[in-house]
Amino acid sequence: MIPAVLIVSTTLDFSTDFVCIGLSERGICYLRLNRDRFNEYEIILNPIDPSMIVTIAGQTYEISDDSLMSIYYRAPTFLRDIYQPELAEDKQLYRSQWAAFIRNLIVFEKAVWINNPVDTYRAENKAYQLMIAGRIGFFLPRTLIVNHISQATSFGELAAIKSIDTAIVGNSEQEKFVYTQLYKTSTLDDQHFSSPFFFQTALTPKSDIRVTIVQDWLLAVKIDSEVPIAGDWRKHDTSLNYEIIELPLDVARNCIQFAKELNLRYCAIDLIFFKGEYYFIEVNPTGEWLFIQQNVNQRIHEEIISSLVPVD
């Protein structure tokens, strides 16, 4: 078989399931490589004359730079939980080298990518995001990256503290994500910390806006709750409400321009509406979209498929 679309994902990625079903319904041949099943595949990749042969359960797939139309890349650009001393050496090697392998799929330069890991890596840097967003014309919260707090009170009564990168901490028994936290600046001592972090003006009270972009298609959804959301809505305890909204034309244009500036065919932008203005907070180039699709009854996966396989 000669697939037109290559998908890099995992077995339990339900968002990707929707894309695969849609491709099948359109009669598009695709190959899905699940990162948790690599030990079940036989793979030969020729990086010099880009081509790949993959055998799965007796079925052989042949991919070349000329035959491959697009790649849907649902994978991190690097492992954020590198140090896991409880893992055996062969398991550590498995994880690191297969992660490196899928990054090296960038040899397929002629394919349309959602998104190319080179672009994703750059876009995941939050300081770079803010620089580009400011250049485009977004409102931004005052932001510093620090490893000490000496100017806390100059940020007002409340400040937001968050990790520079998506942080996963824990031990062999439990993992935890590090979310944005709000602090009263009067309670923060002037001290040094073991790692740097973002220090931002807290925008509250606020409305959270998730903007999903697929090329020139945009969907803006307000996320709120009966109990006001002071910090990160992802860690809010009560049920959330989702409502499709229409952004002002200039804000919508900024969102589309931002995605194009970072060469992202898909991305999820987080905005905050505060005191009559829309503030850019961050972008996730591999951000989850299925929860939005299910809560506002929009077929985001169809937009992704249309981007992967354009209709003439």
Automatic annotation (TrEMBL):
What GO terms describe the biological role, i.e. biological process, of this protein? SOS response
Gene Ontology CC, one term? cytoplasm
Please give the Gene Ontology molecular function terms for this protein: ribosomal S6-glutamic acid ligase activity
Supply the name of the protein: RimK-like ATP-grasp domain-containing protein
What's the source species for this entry? Siphonobacter aquaeclarae
